[in-house]
Amino acid sequence: xxxxxxxxxxxxxxxxxxxxxxxxxxxxxxxxxxxxxxxxxxxxxxxxxxxxxxxxxxxxxxxxxxxxxxxxxxxxxxxxxxxxxxxxxxxxxxxxxxxxxxxxxxxxxxxxxxxxxxxxxxxxxxxxxxxxxxxxxxxxxxxxxxxxxxxxxxxxxxxxxxxxxxxxxxxxxxxxxxxxxxxxxxxxxxxxxxxxxxxxxxxxxxxxxxxxxxxxx
Length: 217
Description:
By secondary structure, this protein is α+β, with helices and mostly antiparallel strands. 38% of the residues lie in helices and 28% in strands.
């Protein structure tokens, strides 16, 4: 389900998602409010690319089916732009599935390309965003090469946090998937680090605060 967005909608969206402030007005005028229920498929692999999507609420997965029928997850997104490669592909290279009820903003792909071409500030924003994502993916590749669950947790906190301090704004189950482990393995590894005095954790509502102690402390 999709509907047009107005100026009042944008003011509210930008307060919740400051990144959207970089979207030029001409592109905002073409944006639509997209809703999807859990288990909905927003598009199938091979379909013509029509929209660049920004996740406001819920969770989106990009996935393909292996020959043995297993699902291969290429990307998970709970906030921000998803499937950025759509910009350069005439057709979607995977299925996009909502794993929870979702709200998204949809930007027509042609207007999105035109905005990048015509608006220098928007183009600079987009290039900087992609550079940050590349750095994050490099860190993720390095992290997944680590064998132990505790090493992956420590690496995540050190690279994604600030001075060994991280506020985790996702469920432990989603974090475990990002770390490439089961949530049971994550719980055991967290408990191991806490018992060893290497990690402190604190629940603040829906946020998990983690702090790694340095070896010199």
